[in-house]
Write a structure and sequence with these properties.
Number of domains: 1
CATH architecture: 3-Layer(aba) Sandwich
Radius of gyration: 18 Å
Number of helices: 10
Structural class: alpha/beta
CATH topology: UDP-N-acetylmuramoyl-L-alanine:D-glutamate ligase
Strand content: 15-25%
Low-confidence stretches: none
CATH class: Alpha Beta
Mean pLDDT: 95
Length: 311
């Protein structure tokens, strides 16, 4: 599987557990502080590499030391970073994530260089040569630019997918609509699906997204699993029951597992099982890069671990 993950690259600084910010200049002791590569392109790339894919990642980071460190983390994970461009006038995107004891993760986020990746930065020959293109954060690029990138890859035989990075409350259908007809698999979470469509139910959100041109939807729902939807119907693939430490990167891990399953010739429901499995493995530790799993161990986990049943 040759895949390019294109879009958001973020350096995450995670602190756990955090019940609240200390008053004034007081100090609170914590158990863990970790720094990891993350974002809808970089985070997905990390898990794809673990699952045996040949991964190149593309996007924009600054020329600062944060960007140097982010690129080095990706290189260490076996990811080809030659398609990343450096923007001297912009900082590298970063987040500070104080992880609550229940695994929730509020964010202090620096948008940084991500929205400044332009069509002039795209390696069109690389897109034409890949098997899969995963666009993480089309709303940051602008819908017309995202549409052109996806269309070019699709016209050259690639399977295309996209995920969102903005929270649903900040989204609108206009921000992504032009890109959706060129996306084979659209992979938002439930809050994003509702927020970007303005719908009040997931079934209504699916209808709106299908009408806008998206074919197959795989919408993550946390502990409720993944909702698969095509114009012909929907069904839920249950999640796995695990003790959650941190949900950072779980959506990106699902995307990676789902795409790896498709590349192996699995039907979408079976691909979603692999996606849920690797998301569960990532959720048991801190950060997007948690876990030393492989495709074989992820499949073994999926086969032996009971799922959370949903109705």
């Amino acid at each position: 599987m040759k895949v390019i993950t294109l879009g958001a690259h973020v350096l995450d600084i995670l602190v756990r557990p955090v019940d609240g910010i200390p008053e004034g200049q007081q100090t609170a002791l914590v158990q863990d502080i970790r720094i990891t590569a993350a974002g809808t392109a970089a985070g997905t790339a990390l898990t794809l590499a673990k699952l045996g894919a040949r991964v190149r990642t593309a996007g924009a980071v600054g020329t600062d030391s944060t960007g140097d460190f982010l690129v080095s983390l990706l290189n260490t994970a076996g990811i080809d970073t030659a398609l990343i461009v450096r923007k001297s006038e912009q900082p590298t995107s970063a987040s500070v994530l104080p992880i609550r004891p229940n695994g929730e993760r509020p964010s202090l986020h620096l948008l940084g260089a991500n929205p400044f990746y332009t069509l002039d930065d795209v390696d069109w020959d690389a897109l034409a040569a890949t098997d899969f293109l995963h666009l993480g954060g089309p709303e940051l690029l602008g819908a017309p630019n995202a549409a052109r990138i996806l269309r070019h890859a699709k016209d050259n035989g690639a399977t295309t997918s996209a995920d969102l990075i903005a929270p649903g409350a900040l989204g609108s259908l206009d921000a992504i609509a032009a890109a959706l007809p060129h996306v084979d698999y659209f992979l938002p979470n439930d809050e994003q699906a509702l927020g970007f469509t303005g719908a009040t139910t997931l079934s209504a959100a699916c209808e709106i997204l299908h009408d806008a041109g998206a074919h197959t939807l795989a919408i993550t729902q946390g502990a409720a699993g993944a909702l698969l939807s095509t114009p012909e119907g929907t069904h839920t693939v249950p999640a796995f029951a695990v003790d959650v430490v941190d949900t950072t990167g779980c959506g990106d891990a699902f995307s990676a597992g789902f795409l790896r399953g498709l590349a192996l010739g699995r039907e979408p429901a079976a691909a979603a099982i692999l996606g849920n499995a690797v998301a569960a493995l990532v959720a048991q530790g801190l950060g997007s890069d948690h876990g030393e799993f492989t495709l074989a161990t992820a499949d073994a986990f999926a086969a032996q671990t009971p799922t959370v049943t949903t109705r």
